[in-house]
Every structure is written in structure tokens, then in C-alpha cells.
Amino acid sequence: MTQTTQDADGRVAVGLLGLGTVGSGTITLLRRSAAEIERRCGARIEVRRALVRDLRRARSADAEAVPLTLEPKDILEDPQIQIVVELMGGLEPARTYVEAALCAGKHVVTANKALIAKHGSALFRVADEHGVTLSFEAAVGGGIPIIKTLRESLASNRIDQVIGIVNGTSNYILTEMAQGDASFETALAQAQALGYAEADPTFDVEGIDAAHKLSILAAIAFGAPITFDAVYTEGISHLTAVDIRFAHELGYRIKHLAIAIRHHEGIELRVHPTLVPAHRLMANVAGVMNAVFVRGDAIGEALLYGAGAGAAATASAVVADITDVMRVIEAEPRYRVPHLGFRAGAIEPQPLLPVSEVVTAYYLRLAVIDHPGALAEITRALADAGVSIESLRQLPPSEEGVATLVLLTHGVKEAQLDAALARIGQLDVVRERITRLRLHQFDE
Prior knowledge:
Layout: E1 11-17, H1 21-32, H2 34-41, E2 44-51, H3 61-64, E3 68-69, H4 73-76, E4 81-86, H5 94-103, E5 107-110, H6 113-129, E6 134-135, H7 146-153, E7 159-165, H8 168-180, H9 184-193, H10 202-205, H11 208-222, E8 232-233, H12 241-249, E9 252-262, E10 267-277, E11 289-296, E12 300-307, H13 311-328, E13 359-369, H14 374-384, E14 389-394, E15 402-409, E16 412-413, H15 414-425, E17 430-439
Parallel strand pairs: 1-2, 1-4, 2-3, 4-5, 5-6, 8-10, 10-17
Antiparallel strand pairs: 7-9, 7-11, 9-10, 11-12, 13-15, 13-16, 13-17, 14-15
């Protein structure tokens, strides 16, 4: 194990892997807050070198002052660099570089949620073996300190729920669809024009990014292994302005929620569009903002809200992690906060509930031929499957004689609803694909 210490003049050397928007923002914040960080930690930070792909690319004034390199070894093998900050994104070569840094006895800070969700468990073991830390506050929630909150501030609580809006792109799109009656395609184009969505927005709008983050939050909250592959994931690209309008009329807002709930039978992990009562704070999180709801046995309910993305917000979390590492850089590993908040031997696999066993209420929208007995056939199929209707609304038929039915159900297992919808979908009176969205009431 390589022991890392401050330089004789009180400096801690940092190397950056990646110098894009977040990397430049990190350098700017480190320079701007240098005096404050020294007051808090008793040491100064030196950004010794940054790995880039193109030496000729124009950069911010702060970033221009940092020595650049095209060679990873200039950072990974530099004995003076004590902290490596990985801001490249993606799985490779990020995983290889992070592992090499840990093996070299360097502490690592990363904003890479995909890396932690897919390879975090293995990388934590490497960090433990070499007596260093792998910090990842910026991987979830941007500037919201949700990792530290779950891992440290709520350490005395048994957490049973973590529910959040953790992807600003999808939240912006849903906000635009709700406020401007825009289609998904129009709202997505607006998000791309403003730089909130990538040219390929799949990770955001199909829920993959949120699932990465949820798997990390659930592991910390419940003391379980990170299980990204077990997260039920559904995106927002199939949503229509019609359903958003109906949800409003029924007293709900549609949000793309990441939901982790612990039951006696197991843990449910799911990401999908969800109807939320309009009076709840979560329903009123707009634009690119994020929010995470936590329920614990001592704290009760808590909601953390703030900027979930952007250079400044993410850089804030990165620099907070760097500051934390500086504080513990000379501490024995056994005195440091464990990566997931639980000692390595205390991370226990827990049963996972398949989505078919999850109990929730539903919003259903059907296009039905308007003739006597049509409604009775549908309600009979629901009743036979054990699905209870809370409310039903029928809109006047179109000129073609097709009426719209909007139903809200009481809580029911998804498998029961699946059986009912399979039967309803075969009825001659039903036209078009049945729209199904889940509800979450939160605990009143």
C-alpha cells in the first residue's frame, strides 16, 4: 500500500482524468475556493496535471493554467499526485484508469454513476485492499449531498424508502409537456437546444441514467450490494400530452421517479413515469431540478432538493469529495467512513421483489367502441383479476364512435393487472394500445 501525505509546504496534488465541462468547472471552483478549503483542511490543493484528448482545444482561463497531457501514466504513475479525479464518463477506459490509480495507492474521486453502478463493488474492494478511498458524491444528484446524507447524517436510521427525481433532462421534458402542452418530441428538441439533453438522449429519457443512480442510493440506504441489473426501468418517450392533461384534471402530476422501497419480503427497485398527487412537494419539482425523498424510522420524511446537473453543481460535489479526502488522507483506513456506509462484511444481499409482485395503484386510458355492454366487459375483466376501480371517467365518443375511458385503480399487484389487461386487450370493443401508468401516493 502506498501511503499518501501532504507535501512539505502543505500542498495536496490532484490529477484530473478528463477536462470537459465538469472538469473545467472543478478547476474554477478549486481556484475560487482555495482559501476557504485551506481554512477547512489545513492544506492547499495543487492541480498538477489533467489528461485530455486534444491539447489544442480552447479552454477556460482557469483550465488553461493547468499542465495537460495525453498520457494516462503521467497522472497514474506520478508519485506526487495523491488524489485522482475521474471525469471522463463511460465505463472504459475509466474503469481501467480508476483501478490503476487505486492500486497505486491514490485516492479517487469520480462523478461517474455508470462506473459505480456497474463496477463499484469491485472497485471498492480494490480501494479497501490498498487502504485508499473511492468517493462518488457527484455521481448522484449533482450538488445535492444525498450520498453523504444517507451514508453519514442518517446513519442512525433504518431507511425504508428512497424516492427521487434524479434526472434533470427527463424532468425538464415532462415540465415542458405539462406547462406548454408540448409533445414529447417538441420538448426533447427544446431540451437539446438548451444543452440539457444529449444528441442521443437514450440514457436520460429511457431511464438508464436514473436506474444507475437508484442502484447506488438503494445500496447505501439498505446496506445491500449494488444491483443495477435488477432495476425495473421504463422511460418517458411513450408519454403523450393527453395523459399529462388527464393526470392534471385528476389532481396529479406525472414525474419520472426512481423508487427504492424496503419491505419484509424484499426490496423493490423501479424507474418509470409516475402519477404523483399535485399537492406533494415532489410533484412540483420543475425544470432540470432534482429532489430525493427519504423516509427513516427516526427522521420520518425528508426531502433534499437542488440542482442535479450542470458544471457548477457537479463541481461542487466533486470538490466536496476532494475536501473530504484531504481531511482523512492521513487517517487509518479503519477510521474512514465505509464506501457504502456499512462495513464491507456487513453488506448483505437482500431479496429483490420482481415488478410483477410490486403493489401500486394505476392510471389506465383506453379507447373503446361506444356501444352497450362495452364498459361492463372491461370492468368485469378487471374485477375477475382482483383489480378494484377507484374512479372512472368516460369522455364523449368521437365522430368515429370511439370513447375514451380513464380509470384509476386501487393498489394491486402488477401481475394481477397484467392478467386483466391481457384479457381486455383481446376484446373487440378496445381500440389502440392501452396506456398504463403507475401512481405513488407517498405516505400521508
